[in-house]
Every structure is written in structure tokens, then in C-alpha cells.
Design goal:
Shape: elongated
Radius of gyration: 26 Å
Number of strands: 15
Structural class: alpha/beta
Helix content: 25-40%
């Protein structure tokens, strides 16, 4: 098989490869896009913002020609929903590969009416890719498609380097970004579940430590071909993750003892969720243009204009064809989404493929059975839009923000305030003796005061605040 890169799980995601690469060096990758749908994609000029602005009604008055960003529609039938073409998918896939740290030296597309059972792309194309990989001294050939165990084995017999499919690449990126013990457990579980049926044919390579893309993993011991050992490891990981879930459940029960609702950020990867999270909370979590920069959930308190407090949760981004093993393995993390009262679906308003990204996010939310939860669509990155595009979005009453500049943040906070049902807001008239300093301080800190008047040693207040706080104040005053 030539100079074959070792396949395995390196300690903490860092190891040297069989190519002799030093730590931190970039691997050379050949990308292979695969279009088997038979769909003909038709490009139309115009921005995603123009389509978003006209979702509720036809004709927003926007000139979609101005932005020059491509919009894709399926050419098979009029009115078909916008979808990501194979070429656009390959562009996104290239971002994934570069997020994994590789240098893309060549890429190509294979279009077929049906997949080849043996190699997915056909014997002639495999020979062509082998030549390209050898000429470019590539370490990897990465397919924007999932490969069956048989296809993977057949391709590795012919190609002079390591072969990865889409799921393996995403698992590798998750392994790179997992920082907490919980995240590492979840990634290793997903990796082992995916690799278990693909052990046959990998031979000696699967029992060695590896390095580089597709070979890293957070496991503490090397992956071996002994299925029984892997199965025991899987049982152990599931047990540890169950312990994590129990701890999270206890933490959640303590939080729920005080009525503080949770609002979860969800969205396509690289939509700007972490940047928005930082802007809202000042948390300073990692915000990166690389895909899947956030894996471990972050929770921060946030005060709304009504003075109510919420917990804001930043979660892992979703992507087209997100491996089901990841959705399953990351259940412990995604429980924050399942338990949230409101979901903020953050969308990239500047993307030409926003509709496709939206549908993919909703597909994962459907798997989590949370589509019935209240959702606020937040169109982010409006600083990248033209003035006309932004005006069109505003005319439709959509929630628009720029997490980068802070524009629209106040409107977003008001929208969250309006949709929350837990601990609802109520108006009240209160009469508080000036001697009750603690009660006056609680009102000042937790309610919006509309008016204040003094009569002797009494303070007459017209307020709006959380029902729970109003009830506690009235109980403390001894009046209803």
C-alpha cells in the first residue's frame, strides 16, 4: 500500500505519524467531492438576506443582484427549496479539512448517477486520484461522502496514502477541540462506534498509535483490533458518560430550585454563536472562524431588560450530514438544548446557503425532539450585508444582530424577554415603608420601576417584574 499513514488513536490528540511529520506540521490533502444525487443545481444571483426578508411574503423590494452571493435552487421543480449543490458542498468541506489543520493540494468532483459498490467513485477515477495523490505527495485523500467498510478497504489498497470519509474527518475535528473530560469521552465513544465495523483489513495499523488527521483521539489507551477489548471500552465509556449525566442532572436540579430559565444558542457551525455568547455575557469563550471551535457547553448568567435573569448556554454547532454517532454520543452535552425553555437559532445572514443550513439545524433539533420549543431566529453578521439588504430584513420585523459590532443586541434581549413564559412578568403597585431597606433594594435590583412617589415614611411604587419576586416582596410586606 506504499507509504501508509498509521491509523490509530494518539494520546490527547497529538502524535507523530508514519510520514515522519513533526508535531504541528500540516498534512497535504486531496479532496474528492461526490455527487450521486443527480440533482442539477441552478445558480441565481442575490443574497440570502433578500430571501430571508421575503420569507413571510413575496416581494421585499430588494435588489438581490447587488450582493453577488450565490443562491442555489434545485432545478428539478419550480418552487423547490434552496439546497446546497455538490460544488458548494465541496467548498464547505474544504473549510472542514482546513479546520482540521490540513493543506489542500488538490480537489476534484466525481458525478455519478449511482454509487460504485466497490469504490463509490469507480475504478477509473480511483486510478486518477492515485496519480494526483502521488504527484502531490499527499498524506490524505478525503471524501466528502461516507464510505462503507468495503469501499474504505478497497480504496486503501489502491491509493498511496490514508483514506478518510466525511464522518471520520468530523470526528477528528471534534477530537481536536474537545477540552473537558466529558467532551473527550463523548468523542472517543463516537470514534469507537464508527471504527468498530471498519477494523477488518486495517491489520497492524489499527493496533499502533497514530498522528495527524483521522488518527488522533482522546483515549488514554491505544486502539486495538481486538473487538472484545473495544466493546469493553465502549461499555466503560457509556458508564462514565452516564455518571456525567447524573452530575449534570444534579446541577440542573439545584438550578431549577430557583426559577432561572435556560436559553440555548443553537445553529449551524460557524454561524457566530460563540461570538454572540461573548457579546451578551462578556464570558470571553473561544470564538473562532474554524468549524466546531465550541464543543463543551458553556453556561453564563444574563440579565434581561426586565431585570429577569436567565442562564445562556452555548452549544456545539451543527452541520450538514452530522454523523448520527455524534448526536448520540453528545446527548449529555445536548441535554442543555433539551432542557432549555427557549432556543436561539443563530443564522448567518450573509450566507448564500442559509435555507439549507436552517433545514440541517432543524433536522438535528428534530432528532433531539425539541422542535416544539419556542425558537427565536437570530440573523447574525448583518455587518456583512449592504444597507438595502439590512433594511429589507428590518422591514420584515426579523431579529437581526451583529455579534461583532453589537448592533441589534438590545432588540434581541427584548425578544427573549417577550417569549419567556417561566416566571412571567407582571405589573404591580407596591407600598413599602422606607425602613424596609432590604425590600427596597430587592425591588431596585430585580424590577423595572415605572414611577415612585413618597408619602410620609412610605414609598409608592409602580413596578414591573418577575411574578416570583413580586410575590416574595408582597409576602415580606404582609399584603396581597
Amino acid at each position: 500500500m506504499g507509504d501508509q499513514t498509521v491509523v490509530g488513536f494518539g494520546p490527547h490528540g497529538i502524535a507523530a505519524s508514519a510520514h515522519g511529520q513533526s508535531r504541528g506540521s500540516r498534512e497535504r490533502a486531496v479532496l474528492v467531492g461526490v455527487d450521486i444525487s443527480g440533482r442539477v443545481a441552478v445558480r441565481h444571483p442575490g443574497a440570502q438576506a433578500a430571501r430571508l426578508a421575503s420569507e413571510a411574503s413575496q416581494g421585499s423590494g430588494l435588489d438581490g443582484e447587488e450582493s453577488g452571493r450565490p443562491v442555489l435552487t434545485a432545478g428539478e421543480s419550480a418552487g423547490a427549496s434552496t439546497a446546497l449543490s455538490a460544488d458548494a458542498s465541496l467548498v464547505e468541506f474544504r473549510e472542514l479539512v482546513e479546520s482540521a489543520g490540513a493543506l489542500v493540494v488538490a480537489q476534484g468532483m466525481q458525478r455519478r448517477s449511482r454509487p460504485d459498490a466497490a469504490t463509490l467513485i469507480g475504478a477509473g477515477k480511483v486510478e486518477e486520484i492515485a496519480g494526483i495523490a502521488a504527484a502531490n505527495q499527499a498524506h490524505l485523500v478525503v471524501f466528502d461522502h461516507d464510505l462503507s467498510p468495503t469501499q474504505l478497504r478497497n480504496l486503501e489498497r489502491v491509493l498511496p496514502c490514508l483514506v478518510l470519509d466525511r464522518t471520520q474527518l468530523i470526528l477528528d475535528i471534534f477530537a481536536r477541540h474537545a477540552r473537558t473530560r466529558e467532551g473527550q469521552l463523548q468523542v472517543e465513544l463516537a470514534q469507537l462506534e464508527y471504527m468498530l465495523p471498519r477494523l477488518t483489513g486495517r491489520g497492524k495499523a489499527m493496533s499502533q498509535l497514530g498522528g495527524g488527521i483521522g488518527t488522533r483521539g482522546p483515549g488514554e489507551t491505544q486502539l486495538e483490533t481486538d473487538r472484545r477489548r473495544i466493546q469493553r471500552r465502549l461499555v466503560h465509556l457509556r458508564g462514565e458518560l452516564e455518571s456525567v449525566k447524573k452530575i449534570r442532572r444534579q446541577q440542573r436540579q439545584r438550578r431549577e430550585a430557583v426559577p432561572v430559565p435556560t436559553v440555548a444558542l443553537v445553529g449551524y457551525t460557524n454561524a457566530g454563536k460563540s461570538t454572540l455568547f461573548n457579546k451578551l455575557t462578556g464570558a470571553g469563550v473561544l470564538a473562532s472562524s474554524r468549524m466546531f471551535a465550541t464543543l463543551d457547553p458553556k453556561l453564563r448568567a444574563l440579565e434581561l431588560p426586565s431585570r429577569r435573569r436567565i442562564l445562556l448556554s452555548d452549544t456545539v454547532g451543527f452541520i450538514r450530514n452530522l454523523p448520527h454517532t455524534l448526536v448520540t454520543s453528545f446527548r449529555a452535552t445536548l441535554e442543555e438544548v433539551e432542557r432549555a425553555e427557549v432556543l436561539l437559532h443563530v443564522r448567518d445572514a450573509s450566507s448564500g446557503y442559509g435555507d439549507e443550513q436552517k433545514s440541517q439545524v432543524e433536522k438535528v433539533l428534530g432528532e433531539l425532539e425539541v422542535l416544539d420549543k419556542p425558537r427565536i431566529e437570530v440573523l447574525n453578521k448583518i455587518d456583512l450585508l449592504t444597507a438595502d439588504e439590512r433594511a429589507g430584513l428590518a422591514s420584515r420585523g426579523l431579529v437581526t444582530v451583529s455579534a461583532h459590532t453589537g448592533e441589534g443586541i438590545d432588540g434581541l434581549l427584548k425578544a427573549i424577554d417577550e417569549v419567556l413564559t417561566a416566571d412571567p412578568l407582571m405589573d404591580a403597585d407596591l407600598i413599602v415603608p422606607q425602613s424596609e431597606g432590604a425590600i427596597l433594594a430587592a425591588i431596585e435590583a430585580g424590577m423595572v420601576i415605572h414611577s415612585r412617589a413618597f408619602e410620609g415614611d412610605l414609598v409608592h411604587l409602580s413596578v414591573r417584574g418577575p411574578a416570583s419576586l413580586v410575590g416574595r416582596v408582597r409576602q415580606g410586606l404582609g399584603n396581597a
